[in-house]
Amino acid sequence: MKPFQTIGIIAKRGDTRLATHIRQILQHLRERDYTVLLDESAEGLLPTEALLARETLAQRCDLAIVLGGDGTLLNAGRSLAEHGVALLGINLGRLGFLVDVSPARMLPSIDTVLAGHYVEESRALLHTEVIRDQTTITRQDSLNDVVLHNNDVVRMIEFDTFIDERFVNSQRADGLVVATPTGSTAYALSAGGPIVSPALPAILLVPICPHTLSNRPLVVGAPSTIEIVLCEHNQTAAQVAFDGQATTSLHPGDRIRIRGKSAMLRLLHPPDYDHFEILRAKLHWSETP
Fold it and tell me: Which of 68, 115, 139, 278 is deepest in the core (most CB within 10 A)?
């Protein structure tokens, strides 16, 4: 029995370079009697193909092939994790920590995965609620991070942090990154946070340019609930961003409540996948100056 039979294709929206790659995958899979569904993100790339809304695709496919960069996979992962759909990423972007199949190896890698030979990882997500005056105004999931940051003003934000309802500290900083292990190689890394193995059940709290230099990154257990409270006297315009793709403006007194999501993302890699090789290649480790 085939491990996957119905395959969805998700593309970086508006990227005309992907039309040829999508056409190749469609033909390749249909010749092998797979059912192939094309996501609405491919609008305008193959005008004669029928497109499905993301929710419909998520309910019908058991594997999604994502063409683009890590941002495209972040978007797909948030919508597909709840449905248990496995994701395979084709890297047509830049860094590619998550989408690790090169275009040159695209079709052979797909065949290998469809034959049942792959490495599967479970990647954690965060679920966030923004609460204002006892009312939840925003609910969002994140695969990489939740970032509190100032909005177009070079001034520090004042906020309090709680972990499992216990007060941790008050901070004046440009913001705070709350990240999954997957997100430890994204904004959190740029802010001085540690690289955390994706297999570790953890949540990172990494301050952005804190005023107190002893304010260091924290790593806590994944079951923890993080709450960030924007101080009532804070005068800096602030917002919270989810994977850098959705934002909510904040008012003084707003609460950002973050906890691990129960559903995990199924991320597939070719059999020769090596997390540390990816780190070496992308971060240029072990290179001689």
Answer: 68
Q: Is residue 272 part of a domain?
A: yes
Question: Residues annotated in the binding site for NAD(+), as ranges?
Answer: 70-71, 144-145, 155, 172, 174, 185-190, 245
72 CB contacts (<8 Å, ≥6 apart)? Answer: 10, 11, 12, 41, 66, 89, 93, 99
Q: pTM, whole model, 2 decimals? A: 0.94
In a domain, residue 215? The reply is yes
55 and 12 share one domain:
yes
Rounded mean pLDDT, 268-282: 92
Q: Decide if 254 is catalytic.
A: no
Tally of domains in the chain: 2
Whether 164 and 225 have beta carbons less than 8 Å apart is answered as yes
CATH code, domain with 251: 2.60.200.30
Range of the domain at 72: 6-123+264-283
- The reported pLDDT for the residue numbered 274 is 92
270 in Cβ contact with 112 (< 8 Å): yes
Give the model's pLDDT for residue 289: 67
Out of 70, 100, 243, 254, pick the active-site residue: 70
157 HSE (CA, 13 A, CB side): 28
CATH code for position 59:
3.40.50.10330
* 187 and 150 in a common domain: yes
Residue with tokens 């005068």: 235
Residues sharing a CB contact under 8 Å with residue 149, sequence separation 6 or more, in sequence order: 157, 174, 175, 208, 238, 239, 240, 241
pLDDT tens digits, one per residue of 1-36 = 678 999 999 999 999 989 999 999 999 999 999 999
- Give percent of the chain with pLDDT exceeding 90: 87
